[in-house]
Design goal:
Elements lengths: L1 H32 L6 H41 L1 H20 L2
């Protein structure tokens, strides 16, 4: 059961990371395109956005490092216990198959 949770959370993390990178790239483009023509209020907003963007980059990097770390830990666990992993996957598959065929 844990293996299925890991796969879905890895996919979710990967999608989140891709979306996060896209937002960062779009924000950088927006900041570059509006660099010259700003009033005082817009300049203050731009500075806050620049600070938030820097923070987002750091958080994105941390998320990526953590995802890689967890993927390595999962890989090591599966390599250390291959028969257990296959048994768990088989059990989960049988459970899902029984639940789907019950209808």
């Amino acid at each position: 059961m844990e293996t299925a949770d890991l796969k879905s959370s890895d996919v979710t993390r990967e999608k989140l990371l891709q979306d996060f990178k896209l937002i960062i790239r779009d924000t950088e483009e927006l900041l570059k395109s509006t660099a010259g023509d700003l009033g005082e209020k817009a300049k203050a907003t731009r500075e806050r956005l620049t600070t938030a963007l820097a923070s987002a980059k750091v958080n994105c990097q941390r998320l990526e490092e953590r995802a890689i770390e967890q993927a390595r830990a999962t890989d090591k666990l599966i390599r250390d216990y291959p028969y257990h992993s296959v048994g768990i996957a088989l059990g989960v598959g049988l459970l899902f198959g029984a639940l789907l065929n019950r209808n």
